[in-house]
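Section 5.1 Outputs to date
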Amino acid sequence: MPTAAEKNALYFLAAVALVGGGARAVANTRFSGLVDASERLGVNDTGSMGERAIAAQIAAADSARGARSRRPQKGSRRKSSSRPNADSSFGDREPRIPSRIVPPRPPPSVDVNRATQAELERLPRVGPALARRIIAWREQHGPYRSLDDLRHVRGIGPSTIALLAPVVTF
């Protein structure tokens, strides 16, 4: 037989599960409503919910970009066009939404034990002063063995280590 404290804990967990499920259902309903509204604006409705959401965002950005480009700039004269409200970036053709997004290539890795100051400066959050400190620590204490050794350099903290981890070697 569960104790009173155990019953209260079970009630609490059940309440959290119900509230979480309800919040998720409301969020899905609102999100699908936004996607459906964007589809009525002419966005292609094929594909998964994620692809449709990305297509809706791209269409909204293109629409905003088109509205901004149609607005005359202050102090400039707009040339008249045979087609009013024409978005000059697409002409008569519809904007194409890429079928897949290609991830960017990772930057080349840098060996911190052999890198020059210029090579170190290409790393994220590493400027000339920090590059000089990295080289000075290397000359004073020997080669770096791991990311923990880089933490000894003044100016390199946990967030910088997280950015450097994928792009440095030892």
